[in-house]
Amino acid sequence: MANKVVKKQIHTIPVLEVVRDELAGERLPLVIFYHGWQINKELVLTQGRKLAAKGFRVCLPDAPNHGERKQTLSPIPSVTFWNSIQGNLFEFETLCEYYEKEGLSNGEIYVGGLSMGGITTCALLTHYPEIKAAVCLMGEPAIVDYRNRGIERARAFNVDFPQSYVDLMSWQEKFDLSLRPELLAGRPIYFWHGTEDPKIPIDSVKRFVAVNQGKEYGKNIVFEIGEGKKHLVHTDTMDAAASFLAAQK
């Protein structure tokens, strides 16, 4: 089964679209898969190919400030990082509407991402009940806690933040899945995280799963732990993520 990879510009968003050759003209379930911090859409193409092999049409966008839209990082700590995630959230509807309008989506929408893309994925679940299932690889559902931990780490190195920093980031409270876990509403979500991840420690994800997996709204949470793994997704995890979403079709 050969995959077709097409480079597109959807409004101002550079994307790679991956689909099986023989299915290219059909309405298919759509996966929007988001890359991580300071990488680009090309570096998640292997995951895109694995998803396409399962019969999905896969959209791999460049986040704002990344890839073809790369910009100089702001000197204010984490501003570019959070701006990139917020940009992904702003552009989600644009991508979905394009595929619907072009007759390329069958109306089933799935999301996934790694690292920063996993954070994006969890945030989207708070506002878009039409998302059928999701995959979060090395991500973080508790973004307010993640932000606050980042502030603490930076201050330990005598990095100053504007006094209004938390207020300027107040949009995060409304997109924090750990603060509104009932919005999962029973939708399947697959978490994968390495035990030795130094960038996004596993502890927060473990807490989220422990608190919510036994609830009705969290009954379809699946959590796989990568023992001894760091901040890197291996091909077996990519296979597991693709199989998980395929099982939800």
Task: Briefly say what this structure is.
This is Esterase. By secondary structure, the protein is an alpha/beta fold.
Can you give keywords for this protein?
single chain, alpha/beta, Rossmann fold
Structure description:
The mean pLDDT is 96. It contains eight helices and eight strands. The chain has one domain (3-247): Rossmann fold (3-Layer(aba) Sandwich). The protein has an eight-stranded mixed beta sheet, sandwiched between helices. Helix 3 (116-124) links the parallel strand 5 and strand 6 (131-137). Helix 2 crosses helix 3. It is an alpha/beta fold.
Could you outline the blueprint of secondary structure elements for this entry?
Blueprint: E1 3-10, E2 13-20, E3 28-34, H1 45-52, E4 57-61, H2 79-101, E5 105-114, H3 116-124, E6 131-137, H4 143-156, H5 165-168, H6 171-174, E7 189-194, H7 203-212, E8 221-226, H8 235-247
Parallel strand pairs: 3-4, 3-5, 5-6, 6-7, 7-8
Antiparallel strand pairs: 1-2, 2-4
| SS strand fraction | 15-25%
Assigned CATH superfamily: Alpha/Beta hydrolase fold, catalytic domain
Counting structural domains, the number is: 1
Order of helices and strands: EEEHEHEHEHHHEHEH
**Briefly, what CATH class?**
Alpha Beta
CATH-level-2 architecture: 3-Layer(aba) Sandwich
Please state how the strands of the largest beta sheet are arranged side by side. Answer: 1-2-4-3-5-6-7-8
**What is the residue-averaged pLDDT?**
96
Cα(first) to Cα(last) distance is 19 Å
Which consecutive residue ranges, at least 5 long each, have pLDDT under 50? none
* Number of separate helices: 8
CATH topology: Rossmann fold
Binned, the helix content reads 25-40%
- The structure class reads alpha/beta
**What is the general shape?**
globular
Question: What's the gyration radius in Å?
Answer: 17 Å
Give me the count of strands: 8
Main sheet properties = 8 strands, mixed
Keywords: Hydrolase
Protein name: Esterase
Family: Belongs to the AB hydrolase superfamily. FUS2 hydrolase family.
GO molecular function, one term: carboxylic ester hydrolase activity
